[in-house]
Amino acid sequence: MTDELLYDIRDGIGHITFNRPQARNALTFPMYERLAEIATAPGEVRVLIITGAGEKAFAAGTDINQFRAFSTPEDALGYESRIDRVLVTIERCPVPTIASIAGACTGGGAAIAAACDMRIAAANARFGFPIARTLGNCLSVSNIARLTALVGSARVIEMIYTARLFSASEALGAGLITEMLPDQAALEARALELATLLAGHAPLTMRATKEALRRLRDNLPPDEDLIRMCYSSQDFREGMDAFLTKRPPVWSGA
User: Where residue 98 falls among pLDDT bands split at 50, 70, 90?
Assistant: First the structure.
């Protein structure tokens, strides 16, 4: 499995690559688990970029071979529970996550992209959950909620009912992605540029914003702990001092 999901760190930026281009980067269960492991403890990195090898796919969902052993309802419940756990781990990753998308971004791949903080895509990207014409399964309520928060219920219904894939331009118009780049080279350059920008910003501000949005969507507890975290931090004092002395702040994430 080691070669199926690559992870390397360059200049404080973590690069995760789904590396099964011969299978359109379809995800195996070990790949999901490795992704969750990295997102849980990314180490000293400031930002994670998630992408797929090649230009044909970000990730074309879960490898169908993973379903062959399913024989009971519990198998299905266990699968959705596992995927939900991985996606929540990505959402709660302590550093910003950027999905850099080229080609097919479908099923589980689209769910991973939706769980990231930011999504940018090449013009050849295609998004969707074509399960109504393929497997006949369904998305979990948490997945539906995540997608609805991004694009609204009408778009989610259109995407799933019609089973068609949204083009990159449609995804941009719907708010599923924030930028569309002309090709793979431009996409990679922009992902790195964006990651470098975020790596220079206050980590606790971004972490609190991410968690606040998650709580707002899921009707979770209020934000007193997030406010305390930021306003009591060394970074807040550093930010004030830097502002008053007219110098760039040096963020520590503490």
Answer: very high
Say if residue 227's pLDDT is above 90: no
CA atoms lying within 13 Å on the CB side of residue 203: 18
Q: Taking the CA of residue 130 as centre, how many other CA atoms within 13 Å lie in the half-sphere pointing to its CB?
A: 12
Enumerate residues 6+ apart whose C-beta is below 8 A from 83. 32, 62, 108, 111, 140, 143
**Phi, psi values for residue 222, rounded to 5°:** -70, -170
**Residue 50: C-alpha distances to residues 46, 58, 135, 200 (Å):** 14, 9, 26, 19
Q: Which is nearest to 14 in space by CA: 33, 35, 32, 29? A: 35
Answer whether 207's CB lies under 8 Å from 94's CB.
yes
Whether residue 121 contacts residue 165, with contact meaning beta carbons closer than 8 Å, is answered with: no
- Topology of domain 2-199, per CATH? 2-enoyl-CoA Hydratase; Chain A, domain 1 (3.90.226)
Residue 18 in contact with residue 51, Cβ under 8 Å?
yes
pLDDT tier for residue 103 given thresholds of 50, 70 and 90: very high
Strand partners, 15: 8, 49
pTM for this prediction: 0.89
Q: Which amino acid is at 56?
A: K
Domain spans of the chain, in order of start: 2-199, 203-244
Phi and psi for 23 in degrees, rounded to 5?
A: -115, 25
* Secondary structure of residue 49 in the 3-state scheme: strand
